[in-house]
């Protein structure tokens, strides 16, 4: 556990179309067996809080009902000034850098963070702040869109924890990131570059 | 069968570094159990001929010994004028368009083609000329490099045939392309857009 990515991509690595649409994902989901949630509910049990970018947040708002109940959600944005009034008080806005945010949430007792949204995930990965990644690959090629992954200063090695294929053709693989900046053990010491 | 892609990528979808290097792949291979070929020999048994781009061909030349024996290999290039003299006569150069090449090879009795190299695969996919794709995902993020997939005029739907995880952490998934331009049955009729 620690900071975790749990996300679906096309086989060519996109999490959304260029305009942010995830119709292709919803259509794939509609072809899934009734009640199949691909481990999502089980995964969410151990999550203390969510961190998501503005784009993902706006996508979530289109779902209608707020899907995260009273679980704390931090929306990362440098432009948003207010959140819609109907959201629960557990939703907050932040413009913090990833490391500072993780440190603050850890101090508040939130050790297992679900990191969501392409740019947010890329920022956390580049900062060495992702501990685990579960990717569910949907059997479709989009050809273009918003990629899950981005630039990195150096290669990131991973350990495969497990992988499984579903009847729908989705392939879900669960990886541990080797040598992240912050170890995944709750309350572990921090070793940011500047503090050594 | 039909026209087949069989390739390894990083988790972020690259088949080589920007300079064409596949050191990261060789290093991952070196960590594989002795004798593990990830199904390659089995896959090659049914292949009638290989089609590869110039970049992949030049990579293969660095291996030293020519690895394809007397299996026909077509090197696609619009710039190469000659092949090294030490190569077997089963290696040939071509600047044909994918459809024309596939038709010519089919007429010559070569129905199961191994399509290799990023640009070549992208060209064949965009032309609707890929029937199956086997991707072996290596547990590493490169951050940049030469991507396996490229632009497409429209989504390409796939069917997962099977997926398996190896002890090395490699995840290999085998897909059938739905609605390719040319059905995979050997000798099937062609239905190129212009001929309907």
The residue ranges of chain A in which pLDDT falls below 50 over 5 or more consecutive positions are 186-196
Question: How many strands, what sense, and barrel or not for the largest sheet of chain A?
Answer: 8 strands, mixed
The CATH homologous superfamily of chain A is termed Dihydrofolate Reductase, subunit A
**Whole-angstrom Rg of chain A:** 17 Å
CATH fold-level topology of chain A:
Dihydrofolate Reductase, subunit A
Q: Strand portion of chain A, in percent?
A: 25-35%
Q: Give the spatial strand order of the biggest sheet of chain A.
A: 5-4-3-6-1-7-11-10
- Report the span from N to C terminus of chain A: 24 Å
State the CATH architecture of chain A.
3-Layer(aba) Sandwich
Number of separate strands of chain A = 11
What string gives the helices and strands of chain A in order? Answer: EEHHEHEEHEHEEEEE
Average pLDDT figure of chain A:
92
Which oligomeric form is depicted?
A: homodimer
DSSP summary: helix tally of chain A = 5
Structural category of chain A is: alpha/beta
Describe the global form of chain A: globular
Chain pair sharing the greatest interface: A-B, 35 and 35 residues
Domain count of chain A: the total is: 1
CATH top-level class of chain A: Alpha Beta
């Amino acid at each position: 556990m620690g900071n975790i990515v749990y996300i679906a991509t096309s086989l060519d690595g996109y999490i959304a179309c260029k305009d942010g649409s995830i119709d292709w994902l919803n259509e794939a989901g509609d072809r899934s067996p009734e009640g199949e949630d691909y481990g999502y509910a089980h995964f969410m049990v151990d999550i203390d809080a969510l961190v998501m970018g503005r784009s993902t947040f706006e996508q979530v708002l289109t779902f209608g009902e707020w899907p995260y109940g009273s679980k704390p959600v931090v929306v990362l944005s440098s432009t948003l000034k207010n959140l819609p009034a109907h959201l629960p008080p557990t939703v907050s806005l932040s413009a913090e850098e990833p490391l500072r945010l993780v440190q603050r949430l850890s101090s508040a007792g939130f050790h297992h963070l679900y990191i969501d949204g392409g740019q947010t995930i890329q920022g956390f990965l580049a900062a060495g702040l992702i501990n685990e990644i579960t990717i569910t690959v949907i059997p479709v090629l989009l050809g273009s869109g918003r990629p899950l992954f981005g630039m990195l200063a150096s290669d990131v090695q991973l350990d495969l924890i497990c992988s499984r294929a579903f009847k729908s053709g989705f392939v879900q693989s669960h990886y541990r990131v080797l040598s992240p900046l912050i170890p995944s053990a709750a309350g572990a010491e921090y070793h940011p570059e500047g503090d050594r």
